[in-house]
Predict the structure.
Amino acid sequence: MALGRYRKILQIVGYSGSGKTTLMENLISQAAAQGLRVGAIKHHGHGGIPEEFSKDNVRHEQAGACVAAVEGHGTLRLSIHQESWTLDEILMMYDLFNLDLILIEGYKQERFRKVILLRSPEEMELLEKLSNILCVIHWPTCVIEKKMDYPVFSIDEEERYIKFLMEEWRGNHGNVIV
């Protein structure tokens, strides 16, 4: 199977404490409840090798992910070790699991469609630095007044942004959210 050919891929990005893992849990749960097979990948961006049972990884599994992995400092917690891992290498392994959707937490600079979480005005720099933005979800401490080319939701509008993302997955936007 060609990379990204039969499944949808979406990145959840933002700085630490912005709510990425909580959003991942919610999206995994919603997709799994609709019968989708979901895989989750977390980038351990705080340096070092991730613990054997990463709390975020466990949260992804408990939310309903069929496959959940965490990568950090060259260690992919499926207990496979090599010099380093690229996101493409991890995604190729995920091809084995016949997934409908893969949610990626982190890897800000990768090419896939992104949901950006913003908690403070200083974090708005991500809107200029990152590409392929699907939508933005912001906290009340980060007001976005400028008109954007993509949907902008308040973190309190959970029902609206979940519905938007589920429609994207089920819609006629091609097989891959890229």
In short: The chain has a mean pLDDT of 84. Residues 8-115+156-170 form a domain with the Rossmann fold fold (CATH 3.40.50.300).
